[in-house]
Please model this.
Amino acid sequence: MVNTIVIINDFGLINGGVGKIAISSSRSLAEKGYHIVYFCAVNPIDNLLIHPNIKIICTGQYDILNDPKRLRAAFQGLWNIKARKEFKKILNNLSPETTIIHYHGWIKALSPSIFSIKKLQNFKIYITLHDFFTYCPNGGLYIYPSNKICKFKPMSIQCIMCNCDSRSYMQKIWRTIRQSIQSHLLKKLSHITYISISDLTQKLFLANFPFKYKELIRINNPIDQPLITNTDNSPKDLYLFMARLSSEKGINLFCQSIRESNVKGCVIGDGYLLEEFKNKYPEIIFTGWLNNEEKIPYLKRTKFFVFPSIWYETFGLVVAEMLSNGIPCITSDTCAAKELIKENKTGFIFKNGSINSLKDIIKKAENTDYKSISSCIQDSFSIEEYSMDNHIKKLISTYNQN
Model:
């Protein structure tokens, strides 16, 4: 019977969707009585991990993007010697009969070296497919310089020759070397169970992952509890964008369509494009990063949430969270978030990258009865299906299977 779970993630702090799931699930499993070993590389440690049943082991390293010593970062990203050594110590002190190894994130600091320990062959291993790094060198199936989804077979000649990296082709070559190292190691671990978080992640994994594995299962990511009620009657006048402000998230598409549609827009989030777009679109509200409490006034005013990502999104956690708050959504047709939408009932779907398509949908949304669509969300969207309790129940059930 499982009593110990090793959770692996690059960061000790919630700094994105992967960290949110890794850390919040660690806390919930600990509260269920499981002994958690949380293994990471980068400090600081989130307060959620402070619990009697959670043992934190952090190597105290930089993530490779922020390491001031670039040569060290390059080597660490390919093969993190310290992380491998510490992870081996963890495994040597645990019993394979009662322990689960669950990987969430390792690319940004821990490196593929943590798949190389021989004793891993004896443990039950799970990997949640938060991104595409198990088979794609840049993790996004996306060509950054041209802002389009990549259709090449990962690690094919066409893939290797394609300059898809957001920085340079030399960076792409480095990523290809890292992927080759990782592929060599994952090929040996054919007893891994992979966890998909959407139909899209499952479909792309089946099409692109080249090695044997034990099983591919589906477990939904959990979402936060609603911040506002479905019955909130505040005036609705905002189209809301909430994400990292980067080109692949579709921020340009959102702002341009808001301006040309002559509707009110609000952007919640931070990123390298914040100041540029704040100056370019003074009619749009830019709040920067906000905590949950600070978001509430804007959520109460939101007529539709817009999720215009140009690249594949493995799930679209924020769309599920908006629906749980009774807010209808508009999503791109290539991201997994569209799976959450009942078109014309709980939201709308537009053609990826097309400003005309998005403007047509906004026009349609402006002529939609908000109360009717909000009522449909209340009747059809199951918060329980995406609750942490349900997520943990499915994890535990999976962990205890032979």
Q: What stands out?
A: Residues 7 and 193 are 15 Å apart (CA to CA).
